[in-house]
Amino acid sequence: MRVHAIQHVRFEGPALLSQWARARGHEITTSLAQTEGFPACEEVDLLVVLGGPMAADDEIASPWLLVEKHYIADCIAAGKPMLGICLGAQIIAEVLGGAVRRNPDREIGWFPVERRAGEDSEFFAEWPDRLVVGHWHGDTFDLPAGLKAAYSSEACANQAFVFAGRVVGLQFHVEWTEDALAALIDAAGSETATPGRWVTSSSEIEREAPVRISSCREPLFSLLDRLTGVPALAKSR
Questions:
Q1: Do 72 and 95 form a contact (C-beta atoms < 8 A)?
Q2: CATH 3.40.50.880 for the 2-227 domain, yes or no
Q3: Hey, where are the domains in the chain?
Q4: According to the model, what pLDDT value does residue 231 have?
Q5: Fewer CB atoms inside 10 Å of the end CB: C or N, the chain?
Q6: What are the pLDDT digits (tens) for 56-105?
Q7: Start-to-end Cα distance in the chain
């Protein structure tokens, strides 16, 4: 199976997604949206759109977003399974007709998301009702008409969504590894310099990382297995 991940900055890569791909025997490739082209839609079996510090709706500052959004729209039209994470979820939500906006509060650290009442998507069937996940965002998205949030947090209402039974958006991070998180903190740790209700210090984020990353691994793997059609009982090794 061919997995392709779109990166927006070098320090936010596939991380735990690469571990899943290796464990399942899948090929995984990456491209940097600003400077590199994307494979043809028919050459991709799962598209992953990763995070980044730029605003998903600012095509003046980031004109390459136009090309990426057209590509994502083409892959959705071609029926490709897709996962968007943080910025990636915002971009996908906008492509589907939603709107990106500033969240009332920045959310940086390890905070819980909770399943919304009535959420019954197969992709989250093995997820707990409450899961502590990673956050590093100041923006959010309004969902397109007809879609509902699958998970929410106290600071941000729309934390996850599913479209057409094959596209999943996650505002939060379950793909971090300790190395990936260290790279993110090295590049953007100044954003945690003034802790607040929903902003945790970098040292505290790193202190909690081993336990939190471990608890996110199986939920991420089960979501990816379901997106790619692996039997639900398949577990990581």
A1: yes
A2: yes
A3: 2-227
A4: 56
A5: C
A6: 999 999 999 999 999 999 999 999 999 999 999 999 999 999 999 999 99
A7: 18
167-170 and 82-85 beta bridge pairing:
parallel
Question: And the tokens for 102?
Answer: 């500033």
Token output for 23: 């464990």
pLDDT of residue 120: 77
CA–CA distance, 10 with 17 (Å, rounded to integer): 15
**Count of alpha carbons within 13 angstroms of residue 131, beta-carbon side:** 27
Radius of gyration for the alpha carbons in the chain, expressed in angstroms and rounded: 16
The amino acid at 108 = I
Look at residues 58, 68, 71 and name the one whose alpha carbon lies nearest to residue 7: 68
How many residues in total does the chain contain?
237
Residue linked to tokens 């590093």: 136
Backbone angles phi and psi of 149, in degrees to 5: -70, 135
Residue 123 tokens, joined? 């992709």
Percent of the chain with pLDDT over 70: 97
Structural tokens at position 110 = 């390890």
What is the model's pTM? 0.95
In the beta sheet, which residues pair with residue 133? 111
